[in-house]
Amino acid sequence: MRIEHDPPEALLDLIYDAAADSRLWPSIFREVAGLTNSAAGVLLFQSDTTHTIYFEHNYGGDAAAVRALKERHVLNPWTHYMWSNNPVGRAIPSDQILPLADLRRTAFYDEVLRPQGLGHSAMIGLSLTPNPGLGAGLSMNRGPRQGPYDNRELRLIEALFPHLRRSVRLGFRIEAYRALRNGEYRTLDRLAVGIVLLDRQARIVYSNAAARALDGEDKPLRLGGGRVAHSSPSHTRRLDHLVQATLHHVPMTAIGVPCPDDGRVVTVLASSVRGEDLGRFADAHMKDAAVILFISDPVAKMAVPASWLMDTYRMTPAEADVAVATASYGGAFHAAQRLNLSPNTVKSHLARVFAKTGVSGQGKLSELIASLGMALSA
Fold it and tell me: Is the overall model pTM greater than 0.70, yes or no?
């Protein structure tokens, strides 16, 4: 079978549509399976620290085997290699990790692979967050008799990598998209992620409270005059290019723009409005809606329960509270005020938080918690 390195356009459309409709993932795997001679496929988002799978989409998988994977084999020879080597964007054949003859001697093979008739895999990491302990990956799988994946099949999977990563990242904002689509504006105004909806002339037809909070002279955006702009003309041009690219059928792209007051970078991700949603926006008096901007501020007050950090990083309640407050309120000083603690106590807790999360500095901690909040709310 001849395999093209450039994926079919219909498959890419399906991948981007899955960002707003996760029910499409089995169809995506079915298409990729046909191109790579695979029998099954799975997309996982999981924690290396707690050995927890937070979500999974699969095709061709056996329910009992998937349950065994979640309960006993989150850390297996394949995932151990992917976590240790972090080959983001590169498709790795399972036989490079462990030959089939050796794999057959593992409990992972007996309980997860053998019941499904699988023996070979091609895996690729997606690198969705700055936290090395949280990650997502795609795995295409097939039976022992079909043999290892060849270079042509691996290159096809690698060609899908940027599209899969963008789609899953957008999927992390899916609750915001759904709320906007359904007119649940009170919900949108409680989100830390900024939402701006633009029409085909790139004019603003809706913005939520988080987006409006980023509008001002010392803020990263200017929303006056019905347009999205920046205090710097060069960054305004970058924002214009981002919107125009989306209007001209680039499925999704993102840029970072600085905040004038402290230099922190705010991420602006643009996505086109799906055709089937045009009518819904029109019914909500947002006629001609064409582009959605998702704006992520690393110091925004993310609704991340402290229990998530305790589960994921084995933090104490006090450490988790300090981590959330530091990320949400702009640093250790404000966290101390918010929690009614001494600055030295907050610094002591933060030292342990940095050690447990593997990040250094309050800015990186804010980015990590923002990413965690988006991912675990998907």
Answer: no
